[in-house]
Amino acid sequence: MLIRGVALLSGCFLAGQLVGETIGRLIHIDANVGGVGFAMLFLVYAQNWLEKRNKINLEMESGILFWSKMYIPVIVAMAATQNVRVALSSGAIALLAGIIPVILCLVLVPIVAKLSLKGTEEWSI
């Protein structure tokens, strides 16, 4: 049953890639346009469809959950690698567009964390 969950995820991935490539070709772009997003939408839809019909069991669901947790970090890492290559070949503006938001996030996360803790202290009675 674990294999069925992996097979479902693989099928959704292939369908998403096919849709993304097709959209890219239709709009004359030599790239996959949203294939990962379509794949995740297909996976959510397929899982809900199977759950409504009581066709999914615990082992199949664990296969889907395991690979869906692995899927997102792997795809993000692949996309990040491509973006770095493009940024290095595109010049300083592309590098600044990537570096500035990262620095802002690193600065703002501790501030937001402190503000959120401060807000919970006031409400904890």
TrEMBL record:
Cited Pfam families: MadL
GTP-binding is among the record's keywords: no
Membrane-spanning residues: 30-50, 62-80, 92-113
InterPro entries found in the cross-reference section: Maln_transptMadL
Keywords: Membrane, Transmembrane, Transmembrane helix
UniProt superkingdom: Bacteria
Protein's recorded name: Malonate transporter subunit MadL
Species, as recorded: Spirosoma flavum
Gene it is expressed from: madL
